[in-house]
Amino acid sequence: xxxxxxxxxxxxxxxxxxxxxxQLIDLGGRTVLxxxxxxxxxxxxxxxxxxxxxxxxxxxxxxxxGSTRLPCAIAAGGARRQDSVAAGLAALPxxxxxxxxxxxxxxxxxxxxxxxxxxxxxxxxxxxxxxAARDTIKRVPASSRLVAETIPRGEIWLAQTPQGFRRxxxxxxxxxxxxxxEGTDEAMLAERAGHAVEIVEGHERNVKITTSDDLERAxxxxxxxxxxxxxxxxxxLVDGRPLVLAGExxxxxxxxxxxxxxxxxxxxxxxxxxxxxxxxxxxxxxxxTDPQWKDVAGLDLLSRSVAILAAGGWRPASADVTVxxxxxxxxxxLPAIRQxxxxxxxxDVSAVSVKGKTNEGVxxxxxxxxxAAHAVATxxxxxxx
Length: 385
Ligand code: MG
Hints:
Layout: E1 3-8, E2 26-27, E3 30-31, H1 32-41, E4 46-53, H2 61-65, E5 72-76, H3 81-91, E6 98-103, H4 111-124, E7 126-132, E8 137-139, E9 149-151, E10 157-159, E11 163-166, H5 167-178, H6 186-192, E12 198-201, H7 212-220, E13 226-239, E14 243-245, E15 248-250, E16 254-256, H8 264-277, H9 282-285, H10 298-311, E17 314-324, H11 334-345, E18 352-357, H12 363-366, E19 370-381
Parallel strand pairs: 1-4, 1-6, 4-5, 7-12, 17-18
Antiparallel strand pairs: 2-3, 6-11, 7-10, 7-11, 8-9, 13-16, 13-19, 14-15, 17-19
Helix pairs in contact: 3-5, 5-6, 8-10, 10-11
């Protein structure tokens, strides 16, 4: 039997808390929708795909789906899920005798589950992948908080998608839906239309992304929890300039020359943060050709860098800075510098290290002609960004 797939992406997904529809949220470089489509596009038993999108996205449908191996049509969804499935079925050429209906919000569907559904639906007429309930199930009337009964868990299965149907069975389910019956899935309508529906093993990973927690867990599978970046900065030291490190003024008759205040601790650290996140560098965000950044305080730049990170979905997790300076001695000032850095990064001081070194009289830094800093920072993804 030739297998066609209807991927239902008609919802707006407001429960994920995201401003964009959940099917268009990026998961590790591909959207939720693209991952769902790819799972079927790669399956050797599937011959055609129909993607059902909200009306307003249909015009961009091909671009949203991306390139596919199989023929892929785009259809406009309806108000209810069953209306969207009806539209998808109408757009699927009649030569496909077995039809799978899949929620776009289940991007982790695996090949073995699809295999089991195709096999069972061909044999029985309708098949649903499901996982056995692990929690104890209580039935509670809508009107109270009192348990009416505990339902034997062995009889409870949690339905997933793709749900598979011989085409006449799905047509009967769609017709029942069109006549006014409400179904939370196509299998329910098929059951009501009098057809046998077989349960096959689904997969725990085949989750439906519905809430912001679901989305966070899904993203965690693709995004490394922690990233690392390095930064470096050097400024020439000249007479008559203040020597400021992380906003802390040091006793010195020489200070860094620069368009800004030449705060190497903040500059190296900002670059480490940008480096960890792939969000550019300090020169790109605060160009020294822009008068806006003339004499700007290093701590201010660092604070702005943290804000840019936050907008990109990251926050600092730790920082380690080494300042290379011949004189004055840094040791007395390190605790104050460390605390200021921690405050700006929003970290406990224990997550921040600032160390001082001399260059043993060697090269420009060693001769006291320059100050340099090396920084390493780690960042973590911000929940729900
Ligand atoms: Mg600099």
